[in-house]
Amino acid sequence: xxxxxxxxxxxxxxxxxxxxxxxxxxxxxxxxxxxxxxxxxxxxxxxxxxxxxxxxxxxxxxxxxxxxxxxxxxxxxxxxxxxxxxxxxxxxxxxxxxxxxxxxxxxxxxxxxxxxxxxxxxxxxxxxxxxxxxxxxxxxxxxxxxxxxxxxxxxxxxxxxxxxxxxxxxxxxxxxxxxxxxxxxxxxxxxxxxxxxxxxxxxxxxxxxxxxxxxxxxxxxxxxxxxxxxxxxxxxxxxxxxxxxxxxxxxxxxxxxxxxxxxxxxxxxxxxxxxxxxxxxxxxxxxxxxxxxxxxxxxxxxxxxxxxxxxxxxxxxxxxxxxxxxxxxxxxxxxxxxxxxxxxxxxxxxxxxxxxxxxxxxxxxxxxxxxxxxxxxxxxxxxxxxxxxxxxxxxxxxxxxxxxxxxxxxxxxxxxxxxxxxxxxxxxxxxxxxxxxxxxxxxxxxxxxxxxxxxxxxxxxxxxxxxxxxxxxxxxxxxxxxxxxxxxxxxxxxxxxxxxxxxxxxxxxxxxxxxxxxxxxxxxxxxxxxxxxxxxxxxxxxxxxxxxxxxxxxxxxxxxxxxxxxxxxx
Length: 570
What we know:
By secondary structure, the chain is mainly alpha-helical. The chain has 24 helices and 2 strands. The two termini are 17 Å apart.
């Protein structure tokens, strides 16, 4: 589904997502709480070519270890070189081992030391250790030593700062590293792996083009070494596909994922668990692009692989059913989607894979509740939402902030049933909980606040609704910036309320222009959200007689309407 429990008014579609509150709240409150400790160790710099081993990166990137192979979200795809498996080294199996392995051992020891410090909450020690090693390698670089050894050490240091969440320092180190690797020849040992890491780091830094550039160079080097059908190519391909997909280069990303799948099929067969990660990534992207039939085929393959590997009652089968349910829903096959959701939830509840309050299981309940509301089975859906609330309250206590998203969801459910009085009661409870828990300017407070504004709008209490919407807007502008998507949501809500209050048309038009700019940046110029805001903007331009501004937007609106009609038919 495009969204879960979107609160809306009759005059505007508000992309509210109360289920996201817990995640957004956690993100906003997340802080680094590391402390100082431990002895330091500085890497020495022998003047010889060594095979460097880097410790696994899952502590940094939040996923499976990077190797010279594709990495799955559910399983790890191991690379092959001839008949052998890839080593645990991030630099891969492609470099012959030197008799002098002092540098590789020191680098591994360095990174292990950094990981240990972070795990113990001693980030000051970790920073001092990384800085000491940076000063040592900087001295070598300044003296003219700018080879692959120096690049590898800078790579490790950058990954250490990434683990600490210090993106500013990581960006600086990437600039230094970039100046070195750009001069290195493709034949240099280790370079392909260093370039892969740089592609991943630049992706984290939001530098999409640089990320793709480094992934592509790494891929070209590996193709020369191993051929175009080697499974060792899967890591740069998967990394590049992810960046392409998140940067609206969907067509390129789909082709890249398909290449990974073809490589794995030819080297390991079509039913190996190694296929899961690229299939899931491809399936999710196909749903996003509206290619639901292709997505259904893709997720059916995932379901079949898991069923054959683990049996019908395994939790992983439940997860595959969940993905397939989303596809069925997108295709409009509602009854099949509901059955799959229910089966997935039951399998996960019965399996040992998930706890009662597991976030994924909770999301499944909420998605199913959403679907049941859409098809007119609101009471069934509300029962699931109440179950989520009761589980949260039982495990975390009454008036805990974690119960707020569930109260907001229940309020949304009652609003859909036109029981706005009950919705108001629940939202006021939610707002009171948040006001007791966080400072008055904390952005997490704006989620129940804006939902309450929508409910009061529906109760014809526009003045109070406007005050709440203005408060939410002010808090979000300070927290997220005036051009952020949360601000766009608040503006959209405010426009609807102030329209009925008959506020000045010129001011309303300016607010709509702000919403349009935010939505174009967030969703793309051709998105459905942009189309809906264009309708309102054209209406006001027409009302105010601003024909010169109206006609180009009206033409764009007509094109978008035709495009979305064609997508609906497809």
